[in-house]
Design a protein that fits this description.
The protein has nine helices and twelve strands. With 314 residues, the chain is α+β, with helices and mostly antiparallel strands. It has two domains: 119 residues, 60s Ribosomal Protein L30, Chain: A (2-Layer Sandwich), CATH 3.30.1330; 152 residues, Alpha-Beta Complex (Phosphoribosyl-aminoimidazole Synthetase, Chain A, domain 2). The strands form two sheets. It has a seven-stranded mixed sheet with strand order 7-9-6-10-8-11-12, sandwiched between helices. It has a five-stranded mixed sheet with strand order 1-2-5-3-4. Strand 3, helix 4 and strand 4 form a beta-alpha-beta unit. Helix 3 runs parallel beside helix 4 and helix 3 packs parallel to helix 6. The longest helix has 18 residues.
């Protein structure tokens, strides 16, 4: 079983009232109407051996990542976090010292993002450490006037841009030490007419495909324009630019923002560079389905869906 197929099946089973639940499964957050206002909700989990290695990374780094990873979904909607709840399954033998370190790591992100954890559940079992975070968020803006940015807003001709640099996150500690791009997501939505957005957790190749599928479109990516992080080159021959590019396209765990916006606004954004993190234009949205990678020599390659996906067949 593949994660994406099962989620698609779930979406077909649900019969949600669109007035009460304007947005259900399939985006970075769901939206529920509460007292006439939008309540955005997301949940995310981290598992020992999948998203971290407890023995290597330590409990404090794990707590930090669990909180930051969930908040990255809020950033992708250009929303503002309000509070969170946590469910933690501790492995048997987990010490009080490690539990406090787990709390400190989570708290370090909660404090700087103004997102307190207001409740949750704690259990002990014979399996590995598992943490699930649920975050509640609201619309951005003084009066809540910033519309949440969905994955489905891309249109042909729009530019494809992203924040930061990609690749090699697991080869260092970047996947543990990042901060979610909350302020950047809001600034992009308020000032640059961003139309569709997603955070890069599964890899550019996969997450761009998610965005395009939600919008019913495709994209072209210019290989030479993809910003590659130095971590993507760790262990490679310096001349092996193709391997570094593949890592940037497929490694995932970057937690940068990938978004589309009108081409004229993209030019302004890239020229001005108003964010504390660099913004790069890497391609454009097209009508034809699929993702095409355009190489420097003009060769066009269909970009395989080679990023991360949970599956039960190993």
């Amino acid at each position: 079983m593949h994660e994406r197929d099962f989620i698609s099946w779930i979406r077909r089973q649900e019969q949600l009232d669109p007035k009460a639940f304007p947005l259900g499964p399939g985006d970075d957050c769901a939206i529920a109407k509460l007292g006439g206002e939008d309540l955005l909700v997301t949940c995310d989990q981290v598992l020992d051996g999948v998203h971290f290695r407890l023995a290597e990374h330590g409990a404090e780094a794990v707590g930090r990542k669990a909180m930051a990873r969930a908040l990255s979904d809020v950033a992708a909607m250009a929303a503002v976090p309000v509070a969170a709840v946590a469910t933690v399954a501790l492995p048997r033998g987990f010490t009080r010292q490690d539990a406090e370190a787990l709390y400190r790591g989570r708290r370090s992100v909660s404090d700087v993002t103004n997102c307190p954890v207001i409740g949750g559940d704690l259990g002990v079992w014979d399996g590995p450490l598992a943490i699930s975070m649920t975050v509640f968020a609201r619309r951005a803006g003084v009066t809540g006037g910033v519309e949440p940015v969905l994955r489905s807003g891309a249109r042909p001709g729009q530019a494809v841009c992203l924040t930061g640099r990609l690749g090699g996150s697991w080869r260092g500690r970047r996947h543990l030490e990042f901060l979610p791009r909350l302020a950047e997501g809001v600034a992009l939505a308020m000032n640059y007419r961003v139309r569709a957005m997603i955070d890069i957790s599964d890899g550019l190749a996969t997450d761009l495909r998610h965005l395009c599928e939600a919008s019913g479109l495709g994209a072209e990516i210019v290989a030479a324009d993809v910003p590659i992080h130095n971590d993507a080159r760790i262990g490679l021959n310096p001349a092996d630019s193709a391997a570094a590019l593949r890592r940037a396209l497929t490694d995932g765990e970057d937690y940068e923002l990938l978004f589309t916006l009108p081409s004229a606004w993209a030019r302004k954004l890239v020229e001005r560079q108003p964010l504390p993190v660099p913004v790069t234009r890497v391609g454009r949205i097209v009508k034809a389905r699929g993702i095409t990678l355009i190489h420097p020599d003009g060769r066009r390659e269909e970009l395989a869906d080679a990023g991360w996906e949970h599956r039960t067949d190993g």
